[in-house]
Structures are given as C-alpha cells and as structure tokens.
Design a protein that fits this description.
- The chain has 413 residues and is of the alpha/beta class.
- It has three domains: 7-174, Rossmann fold, CATH 3.40.50; 181-270, Rossmann fold; 276-412, Rossmann fold, CATH 3.40.50.11410.
- 39% of the residues lie in helices and 17% in strands.
- It contains 17 helices and 14 strands.
- It has a six-stranded mixed beta sheet with strand order 2-3-1-4-5-6, with helices on both faces. Strands 8-7-9-10 form a four-stranded parallel beta sheet, with helices on both faces.
C-alpha cells in the first residue's frame, strides 16, 4: 500500500455556493467517484465533505464540498458555521452557481475570498439548460476571475475545470518552502532526537518526524535518528559534527545539555512554526509569557483530535511548566481540530501545536485572527524553550528570529 500525502501537505480547494446548485455533483465529476450524496432536494450536504486525490500535474489536493451557505433554520445555522470554517483553510476557492443564479450572495463569497487573498474560480453549472449572462461573465473577466461552464451530470466542462484549477493554484504551493533541508545542506548531517514514550505510536513515528526525514532526503542530506538517551554516544561516534540537532520539544533540556555549543539545535515544533505559520510572530508571542499573571486565561489549540494521555504535552506538561514559570494558577482552555473560538480577546496568550495536520493557510488565518484581536500567539516548541530558559539556543538556526528576540528583549529593558 502506498501512503497518501498528509492533509496538511495538500492544496485545499473549497467548493462554495447556494444550496442545490450542483456542488456535490461537480465534486463527484472531478474525482470520478460518488464522494458526495446528490439529491434534487436542497441542503443534502450537511457537514463539509473532504476528498483527497492526486490532481496531476499539480500533485496532492484536498477538495472540500461545503453545505450551501444560504441555509436556513437552526440546523442550517450550524451548517453555515461549519462552512465558514472552511474559508480559514482554503487555498483555492471554487464558487458554483447556476447560469441564472448570480447575485449579491455570490458577490459576497468572492469578496470574502478576495479579502483573504484566496484565488477564486467561478463555475456556471447546469449550462446544458441555459447559458450564463454574458454581462456577468464579462464583469468577472474584467476582475480577472476565471470562469468555467459545466454540466456536472454529463461531465461537460470538467476537463476545462481541471485545467482552471491547475492554472489558479497559488505559486507558493507549487514552490513550497523546505521544512529543514535548507538549514542542513546537501551532503551534511542532521541528528533527530525521537523519544519513545507513551505518546509515540506503536510501530511508527509521528507525522512531524516522518516529514522532517523525508525533507532531509529530498535535500540530499544525511539523517541519524536516536532516542534522547543515546544522543551523546551517537554524537561521540561521528567524525564530523552534525549541522543540526532536532529534538522533540519534551526532551529540550536533556538534548540541550548533551549537544555541544558549536552545534545548532532546535525542535520539530519550531521547524513547523516556520513551515506552517509565522515564526517571527510566534517568537514575539512566546515572550508574552513574561506578561502572564495568576488567574489569566490561556488557550491551547491542537490541529489534530488525538486522545490525550496522562502526561499529554498540551494538557499537562505545558500547563505545568507555565504555572511554575508564572508562579501562580493559570486557567487553560483546550480546542482541537478546526475549532477555534471567537472570544479570543478573553485570552492573554494562545499556544498552538506545530500544526502538522493543518495546511499553512489555516495556520496563517489563526495567526491573523489573533493579531486582529490583539492576542499574542506562539507554539508548543517556542513556549517550552522560553519557559525552560533555552530560547536563544533553540532559535540559533533562524538568524532573523534570533535578531527579533534580541531586539524585543532590549526594548523591554
């Protein structure tokens, strides 16, 4: 069995529109599978339906078929809320309408996508019954919004839609940044410290570790994987010091003690802060730990929905370390998956996981929302390094982040 690309590494394509315009039929036609239930009754799709696939030559994508966001009633409001969450993680938006159905509603969807700087495609579906208004098509063309005419039931126009998706894919997805290889270099060595504890899945590694290994291989670098207890012995056996040591954040203190000062060190979580989010913003957020006081509320957000264990890092270890650092009781709230609260101003700090299960768009949206609310946001690895007093050491591989930290530190004095 060939393992599929993780969701967080896929281009997220959101399909939006009114109820019963044929969004689900369109997704089924694109994927050549009956992914979404199709019915003549409006509102058949309730929760967003996800379909991962390979869209060549672009690569791995994730289609998200949403419920109609003109839904009505109490249940409809819940569907609309779920649909609006999809905007947060959409890299490319597809607005579906009937030939005679364009109006203020569709303009609002395009405006939402434009405000978020998300490229969009408009699909006029059901064009086997009538043609779209030429004035609308011309206006969209003037706004440089590509349009496609389809009849999803018969498959007409689906090839054109596939090509439009390829043409509109964001450049940063096609030329995606490296995760760690640029910090190591071809022909150089990285040592990865991977604790095998209760949180390590039996018989395999966790996703961030796997992705770092693959990125190093893609960058023609060498890779050694050890447990934290074997790190010192492994380094002693190397004739040439490694370019970088990367550790699980939970082993930060021991790894920092065992790694020679001339070897740069950081954590998987901090690598993902740069790869999926905004490292500089989250470095500044970590320094907000000094402003925490007993009784403050702290939000801990995780991209995945794993079952927490007794020594869970987000629910037990980070709260314990921060409580010790602050010297008083803090109030922690935890959210998982795509849930992210609207009452952000109620929190003094947001601490996010590395977001290996999210795409970069969703993580950057969360960073933006925190900025708008005036709430600092950081991530697991950064807040752990800061609370343990090894922040500068963990930032050594990232000169811009280290410079920002030094500037902010001097500004505080």
């Amino acid at each position: 069995m060939i393992a599929a690309a993780p969701k967080g590494m896929r281009l997220h394509i959101g399909i939006f529109g009114r109820r019963n315009v044929g969004k689900s039929s369109l997704l089924n036609a694109i994927t050549r599978q009956n992914v979404s239930i199709v019915s003549e009754h409006a509102g058949t799709t309730t929760d967003p339906v996800e379909k991962p696939m390979e869209l060549l030559p672009l690569g791995p994508v994730l289609f998200i078929d949403t419920a109609g966001i003109d839904d009505i009633g109490a249940l409809g409001e819940l569907r609309v809320r779920k649909t609006r969450q999809v905007f947060d993680r959409t890299d490319l938006g597809v607005v579906v309408t009937e030939p005679s159905g364009w109006g203020e509603f569709e303009d609002r969807i395009l405006a939402e996508l434009a405000e978020r700087k998300i490229p969009a495609i408009v699909v006029f579906n059901k064009t086997d019954t009538r043609r779209p208004d030429e004035a609308i098509v011309s206006r969209l063309a003037a706004d440089k919004i590509p349009t496609v005419q389809t009849a999803a039931v018969s498959g007409t126009g689906i090839v054109d839609l596939r090509q439009a998706l390829l043409d509109a894919a964001p450049a940063e997805f096609i030329n995606s940044p490296t995760l760690v290889a640029d910090l190591v270099g071809p022909g150089e060595m990285a040592v990865l410290v991977v604790p095998i504890d209760k949180e390590a899945p039996r018989g395999r590694l966790i996703l961030p570790q796997v992705q770092v290994i693959r990125d190093l291989l893609d960058g023609d670098a060498f890779c050694m994987v050890v447990k934290e207890r074997e790190l010192r012995a492994a380094l002693d056996r190397l004739g040439t010091p490694p370019k970088l040591v990367v550790t699980d954040s939970q082993a930060f203190l021991k790894v920092a003690a065992d790694t020679p000062p001339n070897v740069r060190m950081t954590s998987f979580s901090i690598l993902f802060s740069r790869f999926k989010g905004d490292l500089l913003a989250q470095v500044e957020g970590a320094m907000a730990v000094d402003s925490l006081r007993a009784g403050d509320r702290v939000l801990v957000a995780e991209a995945c929905s794993h079952h927490p264990i007794a020594e869970d890092i987000g629910r037990v270890k980070i709260p314990r370390w921060l409580t010790q650092y602050v010297g008083g009781k803090l109030h922690f709230t935890h959210v998982q998956g795509h849930d992210f609260p609207d009452d952000l101003p109620e929190y003094k700090l947001v601490i996010h996981c590395g977001a290996c299960m999210s795409n970069r768009r969703e993580m950057l949206t969360r960073v933006m929302r925190c900025r708008q609310a005036g709430v600092p946001i950081t991530n697991y690895g950064l807040v752990i390094a800061y609370s343990l007093g090894i922040f500068e050491r963990a930032l050594e591989p990232f000169p811009a982040a280290l410079d920002l930290y030094e500037a902010l530190k001097h500004r505080k004095k």
